[in-house]
Amino acid sequence: MSEWTAEPDIVVSASQWAINTVSKLFHCLSSPKQLVIAVAMGTRILFYGIQDIQNTIHWEVLYTMHTSYESIQKISCGPNILALVSNDNILTIWMGMRSGVAPILVQTFKFDEPIQDIVWNVTSDAQFLLAVAFPRSIGIFGQKRASISCPQDDLWVCYTKFDVDTPEDITALTWVDCGVLIVAAGNQLRCYLKWLTQEDRVVKMHKTINNKLEPMSSVFDISYEVNGPLPFYHPEHLIHYIMWNKMDLVNATLGSLYHFLKQFVDEEDHTIQEFPPVSFPQILELQNGNAKKGHPSKQRYDLLFGDDEEHSNVDSDDDARPLTDNEVKNLIYQLKSRSLPGLNETEKMHLIALVDTIVELNQHGGSLDENGVRFTALLENHFHLKEILPSRGNQDLQPKDYIWALHSQSQDLLLEKCRHLHDNKLVWENARSLGIFMWLQKIDVVRDQMMAIARNIYLSKAYDRDPVDCTLFYFALRKKTIVQGLWKTTSHHKEKAAMIKFLANDFSDPRWQRAASKNAFALLGKQRFEYAAAFFLLADKLKDAVNVILKHVKDYQLAIALCRVYEGDHSPLLQDIIRGSVIPEAIINKDPWLASVSYWLLNEKQESIRAIVAIGSPSDDSLNEESVAIVYEPSLFIMYLYLKNMLKQEFVSYSAEYLFSLFVSQSYERLGCPLLALYILTRYRMKKPEQDKPNKECATDLFANENTKPSYSADLFADEPTQPSYATGLFADEPVKPSYSTDLFADEPAKPSYSTDLFADEPSKSSNDLFSDDDWLIGKKESSAGSFSDEDDRSNSDSSEDENTENDGLDGYKALLVVRMPQTFFHGASVLYNGLTEPDNFHETQYRSFFLKNRDALLKLGETLSIPASVFSRLLMEKSIETDVFPLYLYILNEGVPKDFDVHQFLRAFKVGCFETFNIWSQLRSLYCNPETAASTTRTIALTTYISLALVTLKERHYENCWILVYKFKGFIETLASTERGALSHCISQLLVDDTKMVEMASNDFDSFSDESMFGFDMNEEVYRPLIDAEDHSVAANLLEIASLNYILSCIETAMQNLRKNNSELGEYLTEFIWTTLLDPIAYRTYCLKEIIIQQLENNLDRRNLI
């Protein structure tokens, strides 16, 4: 091609890259000019779209990404996300918020072994997983949630890594449904399920209560734990809402937590597994509280929550009331004695401290302005944390904390609060830790406080009081006479006589000023720095005094305090200190808070507000995307809005403010607060600024020239959507004969390979019409401002028509923020049902009502962001299957089908039945599915589940449970062939209540066992011990397992013979299913056990007393 200077290094598909619902949603919500391919040429990557001009296809460069990496070897694209592999085994991850804009580099990995392939997966709650294949191992990478204490930690980490024991190196990877990873190596395809095994090297992101791998953990569990939304009761989540002055929401959250611990948690439960329930309608409404006059929150939420009657039933004013004193005491007691999910021990202590803080705010916050409340919250929380966590004893308030006091109109009350917390005995260390001389504005109050500090320092010692300790502060106040008096009252001080004589001189005389300076230099030589600074002040050399403080004491707050007290706020030296020491330190440390405070002290309000947006930028023109991209503290946006509204001027360019708001939203998302991120993008929505159009290169007939064909990466699983490959699932519509290359439960060697998994799922097929009709994306979209919009909150708001029609490229990101919530939704729903030991009709009704209200709130919120209710409903359904909480849906569906719920699709995706919900499943299947296939499919599910339970309990050595399954298996398999209505349901119901015990032996029977018997008997082994018994690989345990398997095989073969004699369609279907799906894995497991037993018996099969 003439437009290209060289042949492309690699060309990959960048279009729709997966087949699940969430990936299709992101694809449809992307830019109208959707990506089609990505072309790597040198260090550049060109992203092409297709443009149809007069029925002629034109290739158009949508944007170009400059990577600075040579020899790009592999590219894997996702929605606004990209992974690259370059030479030297370097993996880079690039992310963006807006479609149509080149992503930016966020993480770089360097490996010691070559990277064979990379492939993306996105879960139903919008968690991105990157599988990286090395020659003999695979790593699963994902995002890591940031924290306030460590905001600059790595954004991407390795979740888990496992080895692949194939004869040849791995060549390619691909993801299919439900977290199944397909690995190609040589002539083998391996299927790895979402479940984690002991062979997985799981990376622990933080100290947890239980470091052991939890039973039945999956890669989805890791992604939620490491990068899922924070629980609403998490202290960092509550702090953010306090900063937004959402005290009703904070009180409602604490109230919900209190009632949960009171109603659903037993006294003996010290480790709580369930998340407290969450009322999404209430959370959404309270988040949009504190409305302006003329815009009551209820009016703004009519669209989200329906009519007034429905709205009035969602919440009541009492739900957001502060807790009483007794409730607070009980809550703190409960928190101290229990472990909550989502909180480590430090975070739990932080929550306890925050409860005390919230109590203080509820009691005394009414007399403060908003910034005063924010400072009080941070101040109280700081002190409560110091009491609970002694390790924080030496930590000071940071500029991000005391900047709120600087901009408060309640400084007198705040100062009184600071004094009270220190028992009215503030000394300099206390004042510095609170930043008092950085935020006090009235110079008279500043001097009075300095006087109080000097007095408290001198009186802080009960005995041997030393005037030296307070001399610096009194000299700064020009109170030499007070120091003279203190020296006269001092006894037993070796410097008393000399100081009384020296201070009696007139230090306005240049002679005595020189004498004071000489003494100051002498004290510097003795490293008595603060005392030396005091003598410089006595010599009226303020500059020398503050230089000593800055250079030797390294306390810029003390230097600023001395200048303010000695010369006032207009001191030229004060300005020099701030410009020459404080602001450069803020720029080096990338501290916008300190920079903003510094400029405010200089009365440079324009620079103060600009420092919040882009610290260190010399002019407004430099406020580009690179300047404002990194925002670690989203509370900066609150301060920015306050200063902007107070100053009533535009000190920041529109484009810079727009980018700033986007990255503040991204910061909230990184911190695990997706609803707050959405709050920024909707309530403070800005029109996309005018920018130069990107360079568009037309490339007609991109691949017409055969001599310049691009080289494709060696990917066996091309990026283009194809017919999903079927694993050896038990529930495939068309039975596929599985490959059994490995032992089903192979112990030697232990392998995380599941190529013969009895429980493998057929990849769920999305119906063809899911996104076939894109009317919901064409034309005018529903307002993205949605439920959070408030045009009066922005001076730059555009008309609603412009907001509705303009595409700002953020639709996909907004959808991501809402889609992040389903797992939190399921956690909150499940606890209500699990907490009821014997749910009656009343509680069932309450549970269903709560579930449906939350679901309805999520669906309506999704609709305001261009996510149709039917699509969001499918996302919830798919997430329920990913995280194995689908029984919740069955209980709901049994009472009635919610609106916009596709029961047929749910039942198709629901692969593995369970006995507890079998009756409901069968009933729904008969009502909503083809009756001709319902009976056969139901029986295959029941048979597979039954055999799976038998095999698993055998493997786990849970013989009491397995005995019932084996004992009843013959009757169960006979019932399968019955066409009598209700026979199978009745059989399973009887099985659930069956209490048939294993054969009991008299004590005399044990005398018949010889000493050489492989079966010992221990009367203490009456209770099943899963962690011990499951590891029993003795000859005896293997013999019991192989005997049980032989009995199961015998029953299956007999049943197949009887089914053939019936000559019925059902019999033929079941026979074919058993033959192609069940027999081989059981027989192979039996064969492997036989080989193991022969090896254990050392080929001596004549050994006596085997049983």
Question: Would you give an account of this structure?
Answer:
With 1107 residues, the chain is α+β, with helices and mostly antiparallel strands. Helix content is 48%, strand content 9%. It contains 45 helices and 16 strands. The strands form 4 sheets. Strands 9-10-11-12-16 form a 5-stranded antiparallel beta sheet, with helices on one face. Strands 1-2-3-4 form a 4-stranded antiparallel beta sheet, with no helix packed on it. It has a 4-stranded antiparallel beta sheet with strand order 5-6-7-8, with no helix packed on it. α1 packs antiparallel against α32, α4 packs antiparallel against α5 (280-287) and α11 runs antiparallel to α12. The longest helix is centred in the C-terminal third of the chain and has 32 residues, at 1065-1096. The chain is elongated. It starts with 9 loop residues before the first strand and ends in an 11-residue tail after the last helix.
Structure, briefly:
48% of the residues lie in helices and 9% in strands.
Q: Using DSSP, what is the number of strands?
A: 16
* Largest beta-sheet characterization: 5 strands, antiparallel
Q: Order of strands across the biggest sheet? A: 9-10-11-12-16
Task: Calculate the terminal CA-CA distance, rounded to whole Å.
Answer: 79 Å
Number of helical segments with 4 or more residues:
45
Q: Runs with pLDDT <50, length 5+?
A: 205-213, 291-317, 692-805, 911-917, 1009-1021
User: What percentage of the residues does DSSP assign to strands (E)?
Assistant: 5-15%
Global Rg: 35 Å
The helicity comes to 40-55%
Q: What is the residue-mean pLDDT, rounded to a whole number?
A: 76
Shape: elongated
Structural class per helix/strand content?
A: alpha+beta
